[in-house]
Amino acid sequence: MTELLYLTEAYLDRFTARVAAPADGGVVLDRTLFYPEGGGQPSDTGELRSAAGERWTVTGVEKGPAGPLHRIQGVAPPAGADVEGHLDWPARYRNMRYHTAVHLLSGAAFAKFGSEITGSQISPAGARLDLVLPEARRETAEELVREANRQIASSLPVAVRWVDAAELDRTPSLVRVRRDLVPVGERLRLIDIVGFDVQADGGTHVRSTEEVGEIRFERFENKGARNKRLYVTLPDRSPPELSPRGA
Question: What are the structural domains, with CATH classification, of the chain?
């Protein structure tokens, strides 16, 4: 199985790997920093490069039975080939900021209403979050945004923690989506906005709420008797410079 470097190394944009197996339209690597589409977060894109100067554009990444499948343009490198992966870092960083913003909003909704998440989606144009909020109105959504922005202004640390999977039984509130959507394993990955919210998640996030920038309320939609949808955007922000260190 592929070593999933993005679970612990969100602030790296390059890595070395070996092609484990060519696949239809792409390759599976023995290790990767490329995040596969899922949990409302788009996949990473970028390039694979060989020492001989060959380059393959990674157009998207999706989950597969043997590990993330990297969709590439052109003829795939053969099994056993050594490659270097390079992420589109500005796009990855934007996704990290938006994913953390979604956690801040869902954390605010859970703290105030005990709300579960029924869906979310991040795109270059913004993000949406679907919540169980039967009595919510536009004013409710605007208050959630204000609360999230208060946490951003507090520059709270955002940490990745791992706990025994049995912690789910002891603390069911760690899961805000359907329980069957949480990967089953010996360990559970948590995103901890320190002092504000903790929930199970497999995506990539910034290290501090300050990096998110001010969340801007866009619109609010009633999606039924219980479900409500909130749309937000973030200001453009240049990603931090990364050291040349790779994984």
Answer: 9-87 (2.40.30.130), 92-233 (3.30.980.10)
